């Protein structure tokens, strides 16, 4: 195929004859299941999106425990389980044929669903396997000149700090860290804006922030921070690790005011494990060079033509790493977005705030327990952290497990006891956690 005509796809590389035998597996497409395919049955009851009990019943969790760490590594809801099983069955029956017949359509469905959720253009979205992969790609892709600075914070996670350290080691980029707040429990928006503004300089070209800190549960006032960056360092790109806000908060990139948003989809979105995305605005993509070759047909077509001609590749596909992936999970991502769409992202966010509020109020009322997460709803999302003085965090997690409550510890210094109630949880899980914590204090 001439590269200036219809884009080459992996189907052409695999061969049209391989696709012929499996086209029957990919006919039809339920609008509430945009991933398509022949559905594999699941024993979950039909979803009533207006009922939180019905939503909760979509998850095959062991209900003898209160699972308050589902946001760390999510269980799949019934529609996602069914989609994964459908695609896995097709791939197991004829891997090359199923891929050739379905990849282009299913990739488009995933990108369209992600774009709808983000209120963005689908060709501005790159697909990844995790937040960490997205951050590594982002901070490796941004073009910086000698003397340019990257500003991050003391509160960011290992993945951001390490991505930036590796970048600095590779080409000498200056990376600095700001402190946004002294005490998470009393952190305020004015304090955080002042802390970031004071650290900005005329040489700042990238500001690397995290929407919700998994260390403390603090949610940044991203819009105000973005406005401060625009005013003080207008050339800087505000890049956001959004993984603990994505799915827990309904704000879109436009509402946040960020230039880049990176997130895994297997945390608060409760999407397929091993999926993620990077969204960037036009001005941000224009300052990046892809790190890993894509398998977009236009790129491959240009290569086959000896590096000449061909159609321009939009930034999202150009920055999507090529190669083979866990396609049954990637394609089921469309069903995860559809699941949230049926419930309503705003309702999901409201439910998350409600359960987090119950946790915070309950923990704050237990004598001997120190709540670390801000109680203000606008400065926190779903992550709730606390400290039980005299009880090491690892011991607390183990004792809660023995009491039937699944919690986690924050992988930071200092480390705190951490809970998070997703839409897979109910009030009964929160109450079980509070009862168990009372035995620790």
UniProtKB/TrEMBL annotation:
Q: Which GO terms describe its molecular function?
A: lyase activity; transaminase activity
Keywords assigned by UniProt, alphabetized? Aminotransferase, Lyase, Pyridoxal phosphate, Transferase
A Pfam match:
Aminotran_5
Q: Which residues form the Aminotransferase class V domain?
A: 117-405
Q: Where is this region: Disordered?
A: 24-46
Question: What cofactor does this protein call for?
Answer: pyridoxal 5'-phosphate
PANTHER family named in the record: CYSTEINE DESULFURASE, CYSTEINE DESULFURASE 1, CHLOROPLASTIC
Q: What is this protein called?
A: Aminotransferase class V-fold PLP-dependent enzyme
- Organism for this UniProt entry: Micromonospora tulbaghiae
């Amino acid at each position: 195929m001439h590269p200036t005509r219809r884009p080459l796809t992996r189907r052409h590389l695999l061969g049209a004859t391989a696709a012929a035998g499996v086209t029957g597996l990919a006919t039809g497409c339920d609008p509430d299941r945009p991933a398509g395919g022949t559905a594999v049955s699941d024993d979950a009851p039909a979803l009533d999106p207006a009922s939180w009990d019905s939503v909760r019943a979509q998850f095959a969790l062991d209900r003898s425990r209160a699972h308050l760490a589902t946001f760390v590594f999510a269980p799949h809801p019934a529609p996602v389980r069914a989609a994964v099983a459908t695609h896995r069955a097709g791939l197991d029956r004829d891997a090359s044929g199923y891929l050739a017949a379905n990849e282009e359509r299913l990739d488009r469905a995933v990108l369209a669903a992600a774009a709808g959720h983000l209120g963005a253009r689908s060709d501005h979205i790159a697909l990844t396997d995790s937040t960490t992969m997205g951050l590594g790609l982002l901070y490796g892709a941004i073009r910086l000149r000698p003397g340019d600075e990257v500003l991050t914070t003391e509160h960011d996670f290992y993945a951001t700090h390490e991505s930036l350290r590796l970048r600095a080691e590779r080409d000498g980029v200056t990376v600095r860290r700001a402190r946004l707040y002294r005490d998470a429990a009393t952190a305020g928006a004015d304090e955080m804006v002042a802390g970031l503004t004071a650290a900005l300089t005329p040489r700042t070209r990238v500001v690397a922030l995290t929407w919700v800190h998994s260390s403390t549960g603090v949610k940044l006032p991203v819009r105000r921070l973005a406005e401060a960056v625009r005013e003080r360092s207008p050339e800087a790109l505000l890049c956001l690790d959004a993984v603990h806000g994505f799915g827990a908060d309904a704000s879109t990139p436009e509402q946040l005011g960020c230039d880049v948003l990176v997130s895994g989809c297997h945390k608060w979105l409760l999407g397929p494990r091993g999926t993620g995305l990077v969204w960037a605005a036009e001005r941000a993509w224009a300052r990046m060079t892809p790190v890993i070759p894509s398998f977009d047909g236009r790129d491959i077509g240009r290569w086959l033509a000896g590096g000449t001609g061909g159609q321009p590749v939009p930034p999202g596909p150009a920055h999507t790493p090529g190669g083979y992936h866990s396609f049954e999970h990637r394609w089921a991502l469309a069903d995860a977005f559809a699941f949230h769409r049926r419930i309503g992202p705003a309702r999901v966010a409201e439910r998350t705030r409600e359960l987090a509020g119950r946790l915070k109020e309950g923990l704050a009322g237990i004598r001997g327990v120190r709540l670390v997460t801000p109680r203000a709803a606008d400065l926190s999302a779903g992550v709730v952290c606390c400290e039980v003085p005299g009880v090491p965090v690892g011991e607390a997690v183990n004792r809660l497990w023995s009491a039937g409550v699944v919690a986690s510890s924050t992988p930071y210094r200092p480390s705190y006891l951490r809970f998070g109630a997703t839409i897979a949880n109910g009030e009964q899980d929160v109450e079980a956690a509070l009862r168990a914590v009372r035995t620790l204090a």
